[in-house]
Amino acid sequence: MGDSIIMIEVLHKIDCCGCEACVQICPVPCINLSSDEEGFFYPKVDLDKCVDCEMCVDVCPVIHPREPVVPLAKYAAMNLNEPIRLESSSGGMFHALAQKVIEQGGVVFGARFAEDWSVVHDYTETLEGIKAFMGSKYVQSNINKGFIVAEKFLKEGRLVLFTATHCQIAGLRNFLGRDYENLLSVDIICHGVPSEKIWKKYLTEVAPSEKVTSVQFRSKKEEGWGRYHINIDTETRHHSSLYKENPYQKALIQNLSLRPSCARCCAKNGNSGSDLLLGDYWGVRQMFPEMDDDKGTSVVVAFTAKGLDFFNSLHLRYQIIEMKEGERIKLNSVIMHLNRDRFFSSEDSIQETVEELCKESFIVRIKSGIVELLLKLIGFNTRQRIKRFIHLK
Questions:
Q1: What is the DSSP pairing of strand 316-320 with strand 298-302?
Q2: Distance from C-alpha of 245 to C-alpha of 222, rounded to nearest angstrom
Q3: Do 249 and 228 touch, CB atoms closer than 8 A?
Q4: Is 42 helix (H, G, I), strand (E, B) or coil?
Q5: DSSP 191-250
Q6: Is residue 175 a contact partner of residue 145, using CB atoms and an 8 Å limit?
Q7: Would the N or C end of the chain have less CB density within 10 A of its end CB?
Q8: What is the distance between the alpha carbons of residues 314 and 99, in angstroms, rounded to a whole number?
Q9: Of 389, 140, 111, 118, nearest to 259 (Cα)?
């Protein structure tokens, strides 16, 4: 091992999105993930094993962000299968894409709950297996060896659908290092990712002495799509709450429980490298009232010809959303709540902590907005921030 080592070393947590590309690309391997006190995972390098190949640095989407892409088209869309749409978070677009891929003999990657209700990335080759990936999971997923397995299928010539957050798709594309015609990469509009530690704490508070049997973050059955509920079942009890009143969801919306890097997302504005972008189309009532039945409508953005062709091959109900020439996707990073540190250090229940820390939420938001404005005025460019926050030695 030489005197000069170039490797991933995270000095400031705002500059690690947890995509795990560095862990999976390491040929030795000498990089492992380690959870911090907030419950987020970060790479740790075993210097005794490091061979100074620099591959971990090369695939990092923070160090090597992709260029933004001007979308080719934008749609309001919904799955024609109403039961599927009711089980989906928005308009059922993921299921439509996944079903088409499975029918063509392909493989679908997505996020599912593990036995302990953490969230992991996995794959399926069956229509039945798609169900586990449906619906939102408001916890950062563990990619495991998902990039490695996806690359194996791609090299075998299989059609692969990979759905993930913006930063995970950026990590996948950097990991692969080349374009595959048989890869359909899809990112989901992401507010930010809460920590697994907070999620586990909340489950313990909801079901302190019972085993959790079911979790649904976006149930439309109670009050529809616009007033979705979070449902948690145990063997004897059904716990249901409106998202605006649920303490776990309130912590997410107020930006108390999110990963630090969500304040500086490296791949949110059309630069993840995805073929398609999916999300809730909350403005559908104003633009296309005939497509708002309060059962869910998706917004779909096509960035590549491949993504556009695949979307057009589906049997859907949709409307074209007019776009200005050269219009880009602009999804702002979150402004972290000024009480975030107090939230993570609190020993009280999540309910009590959220209620206490959000009492002065209006004032806090104004202060946070001023801080964010000042940071933008300072104008650190990507290279400057990398030199400051990611130490390469």
A1: unpaired
A2: 14
A3: no
A4: strand
A5: S--B-HHHHHHHHHHHSSSS-EEEEEEEE-TTT-STT-EEEEEESS-EEEEETTT-HHHH
A6: no
A7: C
A8: 10
A9: 140
- List of long-range contacts for 2-7, beta carbons under 8 Å, 24+ apart: 2/52, 4/52, 4/393, 5/47, 5/50, 5/52, 5/393, 6/52, 6/54, 6/57, 6/392, 6/393, 7/45, 7/47, 7/50, 7/52, 7/54, 7/56, 7/57, 7/392, 7/393
Q: How far apart, in whole angstroms, are the C-alpha atoms of residue 172 and residue 157?
A: 17
Pick from 4, 107, 120: nearest CA to 52: 4
pLDDT in tens, the chain (393 residues): 344 456 677 778 999 999 999 999 999 999 999 999 999 999 999 989 999 899 999 999 999 999 999 999 999 999 999 999 999 999 999 999 999 999 999 999 999 999 999 999 999 999 999 999 999 999 999 999 999 999 999 999 999 999 999 999 999 999 999 999 999 999 999 999 999 999 999 999 999 989 999 999 999 999 999 999 999 999 999 999 999 999 999 999 999 999 999 999 999 989 999 999 999 999 999 999 999 999 999 999 999 999 999 999 999 999 999 998 888 888 888 999 999 999 999 999 999 999 999 875 556 566 666 766 675 566 544 433 433 333 333
Helix (H, G, I), strand (E, B) or coil at 286: helix
DSSP labels, 53-75: --HHHHH-TTTSPPPP---SEEE
Q: What is the pLDDT of residue 133?
A: 98
3-state secondary structure of 299: strand
The residues, any chain, with a CB within 8 Å of residue 149's CB and separated by 6 or more, are 109, 123
- Sequence-distant (6+) residues with CB within 8 A of 385 are 15, 264
Specify the pairing of strand 276-280 against strand 183-188.
parallel
Which residue, among 263, 111, 92, has the nearest Cα to 199 in the 3D structure?
A: 111
Pairing label, strands 298-302, 41-45: unpaired
Give the position of tokens 């776990």. 248
Take residue 345 and report the two structure tokens written for it: 């250090």
Pairing mode, strands 107-113 and 160-164: parallel
Closest residue by Cα to residue 330 from 92, 74, 64, 139: 74
Q: What is the DSSP string of 103-114?
A: HTT-EEEEEEE-
Exposed/middle/buried for residue 363 (C-beta within 10 Å: 0-12, 13-18, 19+) = exposed
